[in-house]
Structures are given as structure tokens and as C-alpha cells.
Design a protein that fits this description.
The protein has a 4-stranded mixed beta sheet with strand order 2-4-6-5, with helices on both faces. The radius of gyration is 19 Å and the shape is globular. The protein is built from 10 helices and 6 strands, in the order ααββαββααββααααα. It is an alpha/beta fold and 306 residues long. 42% of the residues are buried. The chain has one domain (2-21, 29-173, 182-293).
Length: 306
């Protein structure tokens, strides 16, 4: 797979970068630590969160991993790499995915480098197929690729999808494939992730807690997220850098809204004609999950004291 060559190139070319903080006794990975329960907003606020966050594949749908992820991390010391891989794996398991055993074929590559601009440009030149550069129907398209290439963000990401039928058979654009039925609301085909590449610029990350950065990376690895996403209607780890730059205290972990969104992506129908139906599914799923985590109220409408 092209991503293996890219991972090897990252390990050989770039010196390990020091992360912003050192893992310590507070950086356990046995469970996702989320923010305290938040009051459930109106459904419109949840829908706005989905619109702010969701990014579509080249086929105009919201893609996801099918069954298994295998994270690999390059450019940092082993303990930091393992920490990030564990956060990705733990979140993946929470939404029903399997995590590959040690030595599995990497399909989520996280690269730390002090020069993300140089890395991306060299990688696109020397390993273009890792990014599906010449088959942009399997990505978000040329404009998105230019934005990825020229991004000055501390973290940038790129997803490549499979075209598959409902039974998992891959096909290319223009191929004739057999589907068992189709209708006005479903196509019997879907978009699955084939690989994801996350590039972290150590010189731009600045002062953030390492667990927060790991959760941010886990989020953008498991779902195709808008590059500039910083939701305004609810707290989110995706606002990590925007909040920091604005002088606000950033989220330190994924919030209930974040985890509800990722869960919604993996609960949503996969064979719709476009992303609109999937976004409605995600919105409904989030509403149910957030309602469960909302504080109970007394008859007077107040939250009971502990």
C-alpha cells in the first residue's frame, strides 16, 4: 500500500519532534475522559454543529471506516506514539470498530514534523498515490487537496475512500457492478475510508496539553472533518486551537458533543444518495445521546444537588 511507503519515508526523513507536554500520571488511556454533561440545546443547535463539522467525500456522502483501523504514528518518541495510537483505538472501539493487532497494515498514519509544508509537498511529489492525487473521486477533490497542501494549520488531514457496494465489493468509476435493489432513498453502494493521513506541525502546535492534542487527532482520524471546523453551538475538542488563539481555556478532552457526533457518523445510513440524509441521521443520533447525558431535573425544573 502507498501509505506504508509514506510512513517509511516519514520515519527516515524527519527527526523526532518533541511534543508540547510530557505524558504523566494524568495521561491515562484506559477510558475516554469527556467534559461534564452539557445542557441539551435545541435540535437546530445540534444540526448546526453537524453542518460545521461534517465534510463530504468526492461522491457527496459522509464516509466512515468499515470494520477495522490500524493507527501508526511517526516522528515522535515511542511513548508519545503509543499514547496517540491508544486514543485513536479506544475511540474507534467505542463506535464499534476493531483495532488491528501490533504489526497490522497501517491505514491511519499520523506524522509529526517540524516542517509540515515541506513534508506534504515532498510526499505529494514522491508518493502521490498515497493521497489518491490522480483519482480525486476518491477524495474531497482538487480544491480540497490545494487547501490541504497550502494549510498553515497545526494539524491537517487527508482521507481517501473506497467505492464499495453494500456487500463490500470495491469498484471504480464507470465500472458495472451488481446491486440487489435500489430506490429513491438508497443506492446500495457506500463510501468507506481506505486510508487517512494526519500531519502535525510541531512548530505550530504550541502550548496545548498532549491528551487534548491526542483526542483532536483521534477525532479527525475517525471522521472526515471540515479543515476549519470550530463549532460555535457547543463545546468541542475541534476548537482546541481556535480557543487557545482567542485566549480562551480550550477543551482538554473530547466532549459529549464530540463523542455523540462520531457515534452518529457510525450509526448513520451509509447507502444514501447524498450527505443530507446522513446529516439528519447524525443529528437525530446526537439528540438521543445528548439527552441521555443531560442532567436530570426535579419537579421544580432545577438540577438536583449531589
Amino acid at each position: 500500500m502507498p501509505i506504508i511507503a509514506l510512513a517509511a519515508a516519514a520515519a527516515l526523513v524527519f527527526q523526532p519532534a518533541s511534543p508540547p507536554t510530557t505524558p504523566n500520571e494524568d495521561t491515562t488511556v484506559d477510558a475516554i475522559v469527556v467534559s461534564p454533561p452539557v445542557k441539551l440545546d435545541e435540535k437546530e443547535a445540534i444540526a448546526a454543529f453537524v453542518e460545521d463539522v461534517a465534510s463530504e467525500s468526492g461522491n457527496g456522502r459522509i464516509a466512515r471506516w468499515d470494520r477495522k483501523v490500524c493507527p501508526g504514528v511517526a516522528g515522535v518518541k515511542a511513548e508519545y506514539a503509543q499514547f496517540i495510537a491508544d486514543r485513536i483505538g479506544l475511540t474507534a472501539q467505542q463506535v464499534g470498530l476493531e483495532v488491528g493487532e501490533p504489526g497490522c497494515k497501517v491505514n491511519v498514519l499520523v506524522v509529526f514534523t517540524a516542517d509540515s509544508d515541506g513534508f506534504v509537498k515532498n510526499a505529494l511529489k514522491n508518493h502521490p498515490y498515497a493521497f489518491s492525487r490522480y483519482d480525486l473521486e476518491m477524495t474531497s477533490g482538487r480544491a480540497a487537496l490545494r487547501r490541504f497542501t497550502n494549510s498553515k494549520a497545526p494539524v491537517r488531514w487527508w482521507h481517501v475512500t473506497h467505492r464499495v457496494t453494500e456487500d463490500g465489493t470495491e469498484y471504480n468509476s464507470g465500472d458495472q457492478v451488481q446491486v440487489y435493489s435500489s430506490g429513491r432513498i438508497s443506492t446500495r453502494t457506500r463510501d468507506d475510508f481506505d486510508r487517512a493521513i494526519v500531519v502535525v506541525d510541531a512548530s505550530r502546535v504550541g502550548q496545548v496539553r498532549f491528551p487534548a492534542l491526542a483526542d483532536y487527532i483521534a477525532f479527525v482520524s475517525l471522521a472526515q472533518i471540515e479543515p476549519d471546523a470550530a463549532p460555535k453551538t457547543a463545546p468541542s475538542i475541534l476548537s482546541l486551537f481556535a480557543d487557545r488563539d482567542a485566549g480562551k481555556e480550550p477543551q482538554q478532552h473530547m466532549t459529549e458533543w464530540d463523542l455523540a457526533y462520531i457515534t452518529g457518523v457510525y450509526n448513520a445510513r451509509r447507502d444514501t444518495f447524498n450527505a443530507d440524509a446522513q446529516k439528519r441521521d447524525i443529528t437525530n443520533s446526537m439528540g438521543k445521546d445528548l439527552q441521555k447525558s443531560a442532567p436530570a431535573k426535579t419537579d421544580e425544573g432545577d438540577t438536583p444537588e449531589e
